[in-house]
Specification:
The chain has eleven helices and 18 strands. It has 357 residues and is an alpha/beta fold. Strands 4, 5, 6, 9, 10, 17 and 18 form a seven-stranded mixed β-sheet that branches. A six-stranded parallel β-sheet has the order 13-12-11-14-15-16. Strands 1-2-3 form a three-stranded antiparallel β-sheet, with no helix packed on it. The protein is globular. It binds NADPH dihydro-nicotinamide-adenine-dinucleotide phosphate (NDP), ligand L3LJF4O6 and zinc ion (2 copies).
């Protein structure tokens, strides 16, 4: 991290166009404001959203784009009015790094639903500078958008909790799905899904994984603790499980029919959509009417929920299952993520990588 006056020059790995291929990119961080914290990035997870964004799946990508929103770092500098953190703390940043602080969602501590939220990358900060993510040596983050990593969590395994963990935890909390004894479904056993299984088990739920293949059955049951495993194309198996689940977290990142999964829900069951899909999904209304079922969605979680979820994970021994790689493996990791070849999250050892090869 070099210095020019008070603007620090850093190296990140950026996508330059919708090929999504990452390469070293040098840029300056904004000056450290009174409420800002400068972090040295230690680890950063690779979320499927990073793939959607670098490849412009949503049609809103701006380049150069330094992705990464599952960031664990070490505090190296604090602004004059920072009260929550001090130098050497281990902290986490997630999907958003700003909000308006005035609207109803902000006042209710649900700032993730603020219409003026600022995304960690692929956005513009209040000073007009593009925001850049955690595939970089350092970041400047307002203290409101950082959490403390509890000492009982290994930093590299905590990184995926900052998006994947939160995304599974927040709807469980919001929709009153934390009581022991509930019957949960997790559709899509990837980054979000595998932490979803672990969180639901820690809450005392009976967990059924619903996967597109049989490949992850043994791991799901033996390593993640799932109670049952269904392959979505197994019609007799799916029919036998009809009307058994209280809720399903649906993490599939591509278009898929909803009816097979609505059938699995009990009366009043909830299908919670989490995947970012840029095409319409279809279902017939009787599939929700006959059973008073809900199709809903959820977007990450609040900063308050992030801290609470990390403490829940520490207390219950929940961590992510990861493959740690160096930055020079990032392009291969993205390709493997795209072909569903990761168990279950890549985490980049940013501080241990040579970012300027
Ligand atoms: N709502 C929110 O706030 C958030 C949304 N997301 C979104 O959730 C989705 C899942 O993210 P994440 O868990 O990181 O993704 P992963 O790629 O890690 O997992 C997705 C899983 O979905 C299943 N799947 C089914 N069909 C496909 C396909 N064609 N390609 C890839 N996977 C497939 C696979 O599970 P299996 O092998 O079991 O079938 C796969 O492991 C993404 O769309 C992401 O953008 C992510 C974080 C926050
Ligand atoms: O991975 C976290 C971000 C999820 C996300 C959800 C919805 C949406 O429109 C996005 O652009 C990102
Ligand atoms: Zn994410
Ligand atoms: Zn707001």
């Amino acid at each position: 991290m070099g210095s020019h006056g008070t603007e620090k020059t850093v190296t990140g790995w950026a996508a330059r166009d919708p090929s999504g291929i990452l390469s070293p990119y040098s840029y300056t961080l904004r000056k450290t404001g009174p409420e800002d914290v400068v972090i040295k990035v230690l680890f950063c997870g690779i979320c499927h959203t990073d793939l959607h964004q670098t490849k412009n799946d949503l049609g809103m990508s701006k380049y150069p784009m330094v992705p990464g929103h599952e960031v664990v770092g070490e505090v190296v500098e604090v602004g004059a009015e920072v009260s929550k953190f001090e130098v050497a703390d281990t902290v986490g940043a997630g999907v958003i790094i700003g909000c308006c602080r005035e609207c109803a969602p902000c006042k209710a501590d649900t700032e993730q639903y603020c219409n003026r939220k600022i995304w960690t990358y692929n956005d513009v900060y209040t000073d007009g500078k593009p925001t850049q993510g955690g595939f970089a040596s350092a970041m400047v983050v307002d203290q409101k958008f950082l959490v403390k990593i509890p000492p009982g969590l290994a930093p590299e395994k905590a990184a995926p909790l900052l998006c994947a963990g939160l995304t599974a935890y927040s709807p469980m909390k919001h929709f009153g799905l934390m009581d022991a004894g509930l019957r949960a479904g997790v559709l899509g056993l990837g980054g979000v899904g595998h932490v979803g299984v672990k969180l639901a088990k820690a809450m005392g739920h009976h967990v059924t994984v619903i996967s597109s293949s049989d490949k992850k059955r043994a791991e799901a049951v033996d390593h993640l603790g799932a109670d049952a495993y269904l392959v979505s194309s197994d019609e007799p198996g799916m029919a036998a499980a009809a009307d058994t689940l209280d809720y399903i977290i649906d993490t599939v990142p591509v278009s898929h029919p909803l009816e097979p999964y609505l059938s699995l829900l009990k009366l009043n069951g909830k299908l919670i959509l989490l995947g970012v899909i840029n095409q319409p999904l279809q279902f017939l209304t009787p599939m929700v009417m006959l059973g008073r079922k809900s199709i809903t969605g959820s977007f990450i979680g609040s900063m308050q929920e992030t801290q609470e979820m990390l403490e829940f994970c520490e207390a219950k021994g929940v961590t992510s299952m990861i493959e740690v790689v160096k930055m020079d493996y990032a392009n291969e990791a993205f390709e493997r993520l795209e072909r569903n070849d990761v168990r279950y999250r890549f985490v980049i050892d940013v501080a241990g990588s040579n970012l300027d090869p």
